[in-house]
Amino acid sequence: MMKDAKQKDLLFKHFSAQGWFSIPEVPVYFSAGEHHKQKLITDIDVFGIRPNDNLRWEVLLGDCKTLKGQSPANRVIWLSGLMSNYNASEGYIVLQRRANQPIEADHKLFASSMSVFLLDEKDFKTFDHAMVFPDGTDTHSYGAADFEQLWSLRKRFPGLDPLVEFVSSGAWETAEFTHLLRRAIGEGKASAKEIDPAKQEHNAMVVNLASVFSVGLAACVGKVFQRHLHPSTEKELSDALKTVIWGGKEQYKFFSDLRKQLLEARGQQHVDDNNLSLPQWERFVQLSRKMLENPKAAFQVPQLLQLASIDLNFGREILPCFDNGQQQSLMLAMHVVDYVARSSGLPEEVRKVCESHFVKRLSRSAHEPRGTA
Questions:
Q1: What are the tens digits of pLDDT across the range 286-332?
Q2: DSSP H stretches of helix in the chain
Q3: Integer-rounded Cα radius of gyration of the chain
């Protein structure tokens, strides 16, 4: 059971119901530490990202705490430091206070000056219903505990522990999300032999891995669109994608030359066409091309996949409250799962089973009025 579970669930639903990709209880490590094994520094109660109008991800951090006799402003300063580390645009603090200890107005104004919403738990419902007018997010179908249950499969299937660790923790060590493209495929490959398509929770983890991959893909597509709009040739698009994935042409050239030298040292032939490409590169380029047609839809894909993974874990139809106005995003989500399964070398049956759930949901939405679930 999560500590401060009620507060975390309130904040998680507030994030998730607004279409923000959200993860509860993300541990924070210092990657440049001295120990061989990373040491826990602190944790983020709710980690969220949302797209802005410039086709970039904005990071949002949520903190929940029971503070009795302590200064709320001190908690604001703590969260502000964490926000600086992630270059987060907003922070949210939900505190449980004694009835005779309301949060002073000056503390709230101080928090606001640091882009932090400082709230007493008893006032959260008023805040939530005003910000998500008029119904609020109380009835949102997904909660923080759903993710706790999904992550718990590592106890029953220890071979999947590295994959669970990545999607729940390791992926969010930095707000530079394009690195997730390479890391997600690598984690998928490492766990491929552990995935059993006959187990619904295993398929749920594959879809969740695809959601993490799609965060990086959306970031990549957003950068390519900003620089090139729609690249006219496949080579132009391919080169643009490689440049973004590797952090610039200079960085790409450095790793390309290094790879060439390593291959030559081993007496292996250097094949430039496959140099530093993701697996199934042509398929990846085509997937990116589809997303560039409607880049805003690309930023809706991660949450669709994330919530679909929860539905799969519970053995129910995926995305029952899906808005049919997002059909293109759902189609893109299915293509992302297909690519991740193929490029990670997962069993063919896994890809087929996951795809069947999306085909079924798309078929149902095709017969429903637009804008309904």
A1: 999 999 999 999 999 999 999 999 999 999 999 998 877 789 999 99
A2: 5-16, 72-86, 105-113, 124-131, 144-151, 153-156, 161-168, 180-191, 200-228, 234-245, 249-265, 281-293, 295-298, 301-313, 327-343, 348-366
A3: 22
Residue 274 has pLDDT above 90, yes or no: no
Residue 356 neighbours by CB distance under 10 Å? 11
pLDDT at 5: 87
Distance CA 156, CA 118 (A): 39
Question: So what's the pLDDT on residue 324?
Answer: 76
Contact (Cβ atoms closer than 8 angstroms) between residue 296 and residue 55? yes
| pLDDT: which is higher, 78 or 323 | 78
- Whole-angstrom distance, CA of residue 97 vs CA of residue 38: 34
Among the residue ranges 64-68, 109-113, 145-149, 261-265, the one predicted with the least confidence is 261-265
Taken in order of first residue, the domains within the chain and their CATH numbers are 5-131 (3.40.1350.10), 159-366 (no CATH)
Segment 263-273 mean pLDDT: 63
pLDDT mean over 190-199: 97
The model's pLDDT over 325-369, given as tens digits with 9 standing for 90+, comes to 789 999 999 999 999 999 999 999 999 999 999 999 998 877 666
DSSP 269: P
- Amino acid identity, position 247: G
Tokens 């530490």: give the residue.
33
First CA to last CA distance, the chain = 32
Whole-model pTM: value is 0.92
**DSSP letters of 171-185?**
GGS-S-GGGHHHHHH
Beta pairing partners, 44: 26
Q: Which residue(s) pair with 21 in the sheet?
A: 49
* 43 in Cβ contact with 26 (< 8 Å): yes
CB burial string 12-26: b at 16+ within 10 A, e below: bbbbbbbbbbbbbbb
The type of residue at 168 is S
Q: Residue type at 63?
A: D
Could you tell me if 139 and 114 are in contact, meaning their C-beta atoms sit under 8 angstroms apart? Answer: no
Considering only CA atoms, which of 234, 305, 281 is closest in space to residue 19? 305
CA separation (Å) from 10 to 151, 263, 336? 20, 53, 30
